[in-house]
Amino acid sequence: MGQVFLARDHAMPGADRLVVIKRIRSDLARDPHFVRLFLDEARINLRLSHPNIAYTFEVGQVESDYFIAMEFVHGENLRRLLTRHDPSVLTPSIACLIASRVAGALHHAHGLADTEGKPLHVVHRDVNPHNIRVSYEGTVKVLDFGIARAHPDPDDAEVEASRVGYVSPEQAAGGPVDLRSDIFSLGVVLHEMLAGVKLSSGRTVAPAQIAPPSRMADHPVPAALDEIVMTALAAEPDGRFPSARAMQESLDRVLHERPANDTDLRLLMATVFGEALSRKSQFLEGLRRKVSGEYRAIDFAQLEATKETFVGASRDHQTPVTRPGPDLGARAASVDVAAARPASPASLHASEPEVVLSATKPAADARPRWPLALLVAGAALAIAAAVVFCLLS
Predict the structure, then answer these.
(1) 3-state SS of the chain: helix, strand, coil percent to 5?
(2) Could you say which of 126, 182, 299, 327 is catalytic?
(3) Arithmetic mean of pLDDT, 77-97
(4) 97: exposed, middle or buried (C-beta count within 10 Å: 0-12, 13-18, 19+)?
(5) I want to staple 18 with a disulfide (CB 3.0 to 4.6 A). Which of 72, 172, 331, 343 is the partner?
(6) Cβ atoms of residues 15 and 50 within 8 Å
């Protein structure tokens, strides 16, 4: 539904940062349904404020383009970590830690209320390894509330927009869902982290056919984690944890017995992605600097691909920036975007959105000057009135 750009934000001189800009694809911008979905995501994102949820800085519109400016999480999504699954690295304690962080983020989203304190009943609806990102510093972030709903409409069919194999039975059936649907999805993710294999390649998981992760893993899994997973994966919502907080508390009790923390997660990321981290960090540092006054862009998918693909494409996929992107609203910091050549199909997931990495440059000249003009005109009129008054008196 959206295009995603990595951009350089010049909100304060000398304190620029990389941000993610998300906007509706041009071919969908005139479709009221997709515009509504995008604005729903924007409204929800603006209310979210939790250390384990990617932060939203700004939402706005430039001409016909809506955009969301969000935190850039320098790391990898959980799917990439799972594809390199090693029981000696991704231990049950680390899996428990990641799940606990996600559960805390979901509890925050589920508890959102409007300005009058009325619950919004937000449900993420797309909890899966692609939407869980682990930074190289060991921080877990939940991303993409793109199909989340406040007061869900049971007539909406959004299952196709979510990742198959992680949705709850009731969501897959197109029925009404509540926060316990997210708990089911998190249970699927935790099962996969513990067992090392995906539960299902179908649209959803058949609860009756689920075996505890300890029976599928090639390493010991604590019985307490088996119990947490199977409770989260109950066929009926009433059989699951009543809230994400309740699931988090159960996970934290396991962590108390088998400790793991963000430092352990940071070391894991360095162990698994060390060489790729070094190359990506060098690239991002280069992105922050000008090169002969000209900004460059690169296919963002290359940043997410394997290190071999990234290294091989780091030069071939650079192209001059030729067309402007959205204005960042009040700050008037422009985003320069280039249409990079497609990456090789082997390095991309077919379901991934179009993603482009680009630099930005300040656009102070683009800020509206009419408020200053009005101020000067008003001051001139006041002075003239004072002079006339003095003459007449």
Answers:
(1) 45, 20, 40
(2) 126
(3) 87
(4) buried
(5) 72
(6) no
**Residue type, position 192, single letter:** E
Amino acid code (one letter) for 366: A
Rounded CA separation 260/91 (Å): 9
* Greater model confidence, 19 or 98: 98
Q: Which residue has the higher pLDDT, 222 or 292?
A: 222
Alpha-carbon distances, residue 35 vs 38, 117, 124, 195, 216 (angstroms)? 5, 26, 18, 39, 43
What are the distances in angstroms from CA 85 to CA 81, 90, 272? 6, 6, 9
Q: pLDDT (tens digit, 9 = 90+) per residue, 232-264? A: 999 999 999 999 999 999 999 999 999 999 999
pTM of the model: 0.74
Tokens found for residue 243: 């809230």
The predicted pLDDT at position 223 comes to 97
Tell me which of 48-52, 124-128, 150-154, 369-373 is least confident.
369-373
Cα–Cα distances in Å, from 198 out to 189, 194, 279? Answer: 8, 10, 30
Per the annotation, the verdict on 126 as an active-site residue is yes
Confidence of residue 334 (pLDDT cuts 50, 70, 90): very low
3-class secondary structure, 77:
strand
Instruction: Compute how many other C-beta atoms are within 10 angstroms of the C-beta atom of residue 1.
Output: 17
Cα–chain center distance at 41: 11
In whole angstroms, how far apart are CA 67 and each of 22, 39, 294?
5, 9, 24
Question: Tokens for 122?
Answer: 């937000």
What is the distance in angstroms between the CA of the first residue and the CA of the last residue of the chain?
Answer: 69
Domains of the chain: 2-72+288-366 (3.30.200.20), 75-264 (1.10.510.10)
